[in-house]
Design goal:
Elements lengths: L8 H20 L4 E3 L6 H5 L2 H4 L25 H11 L6 E3 L4 H15 L15 E6 L3 H9 L3 E8 L2 E2 L1 H10 L3 E6 L13 H9 L8 E5 L17 H7 L6 E6 L11 E4 L2 H14 L5 H11 L2 H30 L5 E3 L8 E5 L4 H10 L2 E3 L16 E4 L6 H25 L1
Parallel strand pairs: 1-12, 3-4, 3-6, 6-7, 7-8
Antiparallel strand pairs: 2-9, 4-5, 8-9, 10-11, 11-13
The chain binds pyridoxal-5'-phosphate (PLP).
The site of pyridoxal-5'-phosphate (PLP) has 12 residues, from helix 5.
Length: 426
């Protein structure tokens, strides 16, 4: 394998000619492929078809006789609360089950804090001249859209192999009372695949915050989404916050969107009893109750934690070969060339790829011109601005494996070509 940064100009020129030919060959294929969003594929959705048959016109009552067709049950059906409290490692009184989208629960939790404050706010966040969120980056673009839409300033903080750079996080939250929150995707993070270390969880739970009503938005979207038989583990943050004397600090979120049916899952919010009581009170103005029929379907179909685990193994069997295809193409084409690095996640939905500084936009444009859509470069950073223009998010789950393979072969050629052109400019 050749370190490309050590090649002579004439060697680079030779590679450039060869890569340009390869790129033209891809263009001639008139590809039309899309590896942009982390959606489950149809075969994954098929796994939950049985769930749709678990309720019919005669079979709609919960275990304790609640008619799930009617109004009520603001924070969820008791058996669903029991199952999903176990799933999020909290107690049933520490969970609220919402509609179908955890992203909507996160959005609404922030809007409520802006309008009314949290249980420990001195004033509603919206009465302050400015509020800010710490945004570990690269991160989930839709978290950043919520902040942008609600006029919350975003402060990017680098992610490393253990989670966010905690020295920087501590410095930011202890120095400025306008900093009210931090976004975290703590397990198999979107897009880096990193699971937060115990030390990071402890430091987040115990750090000094200048704002008395600081919140960790703990989006545990991928908690059960393992790709291997040796899954990552994550410390229980509600417990560590409690032990650190900050029981109200964390809002936990999760959903079954990528367990059962992406558009018809159930969304979860958890936290201290005090936080949940406050949330329930405000939620009762917004809704008379959630879709209990869907909650009952989920409980009947998934049954218990063992049921969730065995169901998730079926997902892994479908998507792991696609992740492997990405890894194999990247290793084969770019391994040891010193022009790119990428994640090898044990779970989740993404592979995060860093190319040479200043090359991500160019690579995404080149692949688009040859018929393969990638997530826009920069999308993984607040305001869509990757300061080094180097991160590309690969989402392999939705497309068939052969398409993922072809798309990645093109991506590799584009990365090689963009790198060679950059090296020739230097
Ligand atoms: N959180 C993260 C980190 C995600 O990656 C996604 C979807 O890609 C979501 C939340 C969306 O969750 P939901 O479907 O429950 O709104």
């Amino acid at each position: 394998m050749t370190d490309f940064t050590k090649l002579s100009v004439s060697e680079l020129e030779a590679h450039k000619r060869d890569l340009k030919n390869q790129y033209q060959e891809f263009k001639a294929k008139n590809l039309n492929l899309d590896i942009t969003r982390g959606k489950p594929c149809a075969a994954q959705l098929d796994l939950a078809n049985g769930m749709l048959d678990s309720i019919d016109g005669e079979n709609y009552k919960s275990a304790d006789g609640i008619d799930c067709r009617n109004y009520g049950g603001l924070d969820g059906l008791p058996e669903a609360k029991k199952l999903f409290a176990g799933f999020l490692e909290v107690e049933p009184e520490e969970i609220i089950i919402g509609g179908n989208s955890s992203l909507a629960l996160m959005h609404d939790a922030i809007v409520r804090a802006i309008l009314h404050g949290t249980v420990d706010s001195e004033v509603p966040w919206g009465k302050l001249p400015k509020i800010k969120f710490v945004c570990p980056s690269p991160g989930y673009d839709r978290h950043f859209f919520i902040c942008e839409y609600l006029n919350i300033d975003m402060i990017p903080v680098e992610m490393d192999g253990n989670g966010p750079d905690m020295d920087r996080v501590e410095e930011l939250v202890s120095g400025d009372d306008a900093v009210k929150g931090i976004w975290c995707t703590p397990k198999y993070s979107n897009p880096t695949g990193v699971s937060f270390s115990d030390e990071v969880v402890d430091r987040l739970s115990s750090m000094n915050t200048k704002a008395c009503d600081f919140r960790i938005f703990w989006d545990n979207a991928y908690t059960a989404h393992h790709l291997t038989d040796t899954p990552d583990t994550l410390k229980n943050i509600l417990e560590t916050c409690r032990q650190a004397g900050n029981p109200e600090r964390v809002f936990i979120f999760g959903s079954t969107s990528k367990i059962s049916i992406a558009g018809a899952g159930i969304a979860l919010m958890a936290g201290s009893v005090k936080n949940m009581e406050h949330t329930r009170k405000l939620m009762s103005v917004q809704t008379i109750g959630p879709d209990k029929i869907n909650q009952l379907r989920h409980v009947r179909f998934l049954k218990n934690m063992a049921g969730i685990e065995s169901h998730m193994k079926k997902h892994a069997a479908i998507i792991k070969p696609k992740f492997d295809a990405v890894q194999n193409v990247l290793a084969e084409a770019l391994g040891n060339k010193n022009i790119a690095e990428w994640s090898r996640p044990n779970g989740g939905y993404f592979i995060s790829l860093n190319v040479m500084d200043g090359c991500a936009k160019k690579v995404v444009q080149m692949t688009a011109d040859a018929g393969v859509k990638l997530t826009p470069a920069g999308a993984t950073y607040p305001y869509g601005k990757d300061p080094r223009d180097r991160n590309i998010r690969i989402a392999p789950t939705f497309s068939p494996e052969d398409q993922v393979q072809t798309a990645m072969e093109l991506v590799a050629v584009c990365i090689l070509l963009a790198s060679v052109e950059k090296l020739l400019e230097e």
